[in-house]
Specification:
Protein name (chain A): Biotin transporter
Shape of chain B: globular
Structural class of chain B: alpha/beta
InterPro entries (chain A): BioY (IPR003784)
CATH topology of one domain in chain B: Rossmann fold
Low-confidence stretches of chain C: 202-213
Number of helices of chain B: 7
Distance between the termini of chain C: 43 Å
Strand content of chain B: 15-25%
Number of helices of chain C: 10
Largest interface: A-C, 63 and 76 residues
Largest sheet of chain B: 6 strands, mixed
Mean pLDDT of chain B: 87
Number of strands of chain B: 11
CATH architecture of one domain in chain B: 3-Layer(aba) Sandwich
Helix content of chain B: 25-40%
Structural class of chain C: mainly alpha
Low-confidence stretches of chain B: none
Subcellular location (chain A): Cell membrane
CATH superfamily of one domain in chain B: P-loop containing nucleotide triphosphate hydrolases
Membrane topology (chain A): Multi-pass membrane protein
Main location (chain A): membrane
Radius of gyration of chain B: 18 Å
Oligomer: heterotrimer
Number of domains of chain C: 2
Order of helices and strands of chain B: EEEHEEEHEHHHEHEEEH
Helix content of chain C: over 70%
CATH class of one domain in chain B: Alpha Beta
Distance between the termini of chain B: 31 Å
Strand order of the largest sheet of chain B: 7-8-9-3-10-11
Shape of chain C: extended
Order of helices and strands of chain C: HHHHHHHHHH
Chain lengths: ~190, ~220, ~210
């Protein structure tokens, strides 16, 4: 990895942290207030691509685990990694990686539609696919029960996927960070 | 520097620049996009030319990058884009760690530059709480602590107010190092030995500050 | 900078090596899942509280603050089990989670951030086989902490600029200029890392040769 990539990784770890500082926004018609933090997951994947996006979220989790209260609501420390909702946290680096992977896959014809696909698959489906079974095993409850509990978060996640997609497309037009392979032998 | 050209994709930013810089203090001026920033980056290998060769003390920036970087320090326009660590002393120490300097000597050298640049009282402070001028001094300290022989400054005062501009100018004036200063602030170059004017990727004028700065100002007006 | 959850102290729990504490926490997590008995999980919780409040002398507030976010989950789990499986399973599940989360809170409160980062670097050593340089983990974390206040500050500036032109409140459109601005900043920071020798440990001739035309 080039030094620049390390800086990008740190940048999106920090962006995820800053998004967690924003207060949760109540949205009419949606039962739970929306927190902005998973927007960081989506943006990291769609702006940086698979590898750097995944590492950015991994870095974020390491910083949280090390004891900085950077999760939304000022949470942090090791407790959140052994709590019943820890599966959602663990899913973040994977989600960012998947979003980045899908973004790179569709890079040549990247547009709002593809960005939405990447963010819905990686940023919503992957997160629930890991978070729900974790809660189910951990809390000794059925999958259905664990899934029902998280239903109320879905509308907010859809809104975030939309925002992330619009932002990703605009950022890529102005400042593309993902480079297509080839052209040059990989430096560094 | 011989026959150096550089382009980013389609856009040529430097065309056939051939120069030898031997003077103690060299200034570089030119409009935005004239190629002066790329020129500065060529001098310590941050940018490797698409064609031609850049030699620093006979060392090729392409093949002897590490040694070139060791000799040529680089100070950026925006200190926020240069300060790596969250606290002041840690950041100054960063370059020394990269050089493999042993911890005790690191501590001694960090202390020395912190005192010299009036940052000793801020040793463990978060870098983001420093003023703009202090941040730029921290950036300069972080470069000088590594003991380069030459220092390239890329618009070091563009983001500073008048008082801090003077402070940084004085720091540059007092350096024994050979310096190359890219700037829009022409008065910074008053005592310089040589000034280059860049225009559209070429050296349009080259001479003493008096000659070149007048030429530049005339052309721009 | 956001304050860490570390609570200064000098007792044996504070002095214990961070790696050991993390190892014990992991062992506890596995152990509590194997043991399904009420006495065991209740005993574990009591033990953890004894270590945290008694030996490490942490203020109850510090632990409570970290356990509080888990409350809604615990209540929901308890309710579920009372309805579907009975009070015994419910109590075991809830006490087990409470013990684990409290233990984790004790480790967090008694271990410095730098010590935990050092453990992460140590754990990452085997990854050197894949070309990962563990020392760079510390560097990336340092840059993350450096970036957080910087991004917050730039976000504030963009918000002011937009307010000056009549747009009130935070709009997600502000994210685009913000991201472009901080991406540029990160790009230059990458250059600054190179200029200050961050890539020096790498064999430089091969590197430079690779980026030649």
């Amino acid at each position: 990895m080039k030094s620049r990539d390390l800086a990008y990784v740190a940048l999106f770890a920090a962006i995820t942290a800053v998004l967690g500082l924003l207060p949760a926004v109540p949205v009419p018609g949606i039962p739970v207030p929306i927190t902005a933090q998973t927007l960081g997951v989506m943006l990291a994947g769609s702006v940086l691509g698979a590898r750097r996006g995944g590492l950015a979220l991994l870095t974020f989790l390491v910083v949280v685990a090390a004891g900085l209260p950077l999760l939304s609501g000022g949470r942090g420390g090791l407790g959140v990694f052994v709590g019943p909702s820890a599966g959602y946290l663990y899913s973040w680096p994977i989600a960012a990686f998947v979003i980045g992977f899908l973004t790179q896959l569709t890079w040549r014809r990247f547009n709002l539609a593809w960005a939405m696909v990447a963010n819905l698959v990686g940023g919503v489906a992957v997160i629930y696919a890991l978070g729900i079974p974790f809660t189910s095993i951990y809390g000794d409850v059925s999958l259905t029960a664990a899934a029902t509990g998280s239903l109320s978060f879905i509308p907010g996640d859809l809104v975030k996927a939309g925002i992330a997609s619009v932002v990703a497309v605009a950022v890529h037009k102005a400042y593309p960070v993902i480079e297509l392979p080839r052209r040059r032998p990989a430096a560094g | 520097m011989r026959e150096v050209a550089h382009d980013y994709g389609e856009r040529a930013v430097l065309r056939d620049v051939s120069l030898t810089l031997a003077e103690h203090r060299v200034g570089v001026v030119g409009a935005n996009g004239s190629g002066k920033s790329t020129f500065a980056r060529l001098l310590n290998g941050l940018v490797v030319p698409t064609s031609g060769t850049v030699l620093v003390d006979g060392l090729d920036t392409r093949t002897q990058l590490r040694e070139v970087r060791r000799r040529v320090g680089f100070v950026f326009q925006d200190p926020d884009a240069q300060i790596v660590h969250p606290t002041v002393a840690e950041d100054v120490e960063f370059g020394l760690t990269n050089l493999g300097v042993p911890p005790q000597e690191r501590a001694r050298r960090v202390e020395e530059v912190l005192v010299r640049y009036g940052l000793a009282g801020h040793r463990d402070h978060p870098a983001h709480l420093l003023s703009g001028g202090q941040k730029q001094l921290l950036a300069i300290a972080g470069v000088l602590v590594m003991g380069p022989q030459r220092v390239v400054f890329d618009e070091p005062t563009t983001l500073l107010d008048l008082a801090n501009t003077r402070r940084v100018a004085r720091v540059i004036d007092e350096l024994e190092h050979d310096v190359v200063v890219v700037t829009h602030q022409l008065d910074l170059l008053a005592g310089f030995d040589r000034v280059l004017v860049f225009d559209d990727g070429r050296v349009a004028a080259d001479g003493t500050p008096a000659e070149t700065v007048r030429w530049y100002v005339d052309r721009m007006s | 900078m956001t304050a860490a959850l570390y609570v200064p102290g000098a007792g044996p729990v504070h002095r214990a090596p961070a790696g050991l504490k993390l190892g014990l926490l992991a062992a506890l997590a596995v152990g509590l899942f194997v043991a399904d008995r009420l006495e065991v999980v209740a005993g574990a919780l009591a033990g953890v509280l004894l270590i945290g409040l008694g030996v490490a002398r942490l203020p109850g507030r510090a632990l409570l603050a970290q356990v509080r976010p888990v409350w809604p989950w615990l209540l929901a789990l308890l309710a579920f089990h009372l309805v579907f499986t009975g009070w015994h399973t419910g109590t075991v599940v809830v006490l087990r989670l409470l013990a684990l989360v409290t233990a984790a809170a004790v480790v967090t409160a008694t271990t410095r951030v730098t010590a935990l980062v050092a453990v992460v670097e140590w754990l990452a050593r085997p990854l050197a086989v894949f070309g990962v340089r563990p020392a760079r983990i510390g560097l990336v974390i340092a840059m993350t902490l450096r970036f957080i206040p910087l991004i917050a500050e730039r976000a504030q500036r963009i918000r002011e600029a937009q307010a000056a032109r009549g747009a009130d409140g935070f709009r997600f459109q502000a994210l685009v200029p913000l991201l472009i601005q901080v991406l540029r900043l990160a790009h230059t920071l990458g250059e600054a890392l190179d200029a200050r020798g961050a890539d020096a440990p790498a064999p430089s001739p091969r590197r430079a040769g690779a980026s030649a035309p």
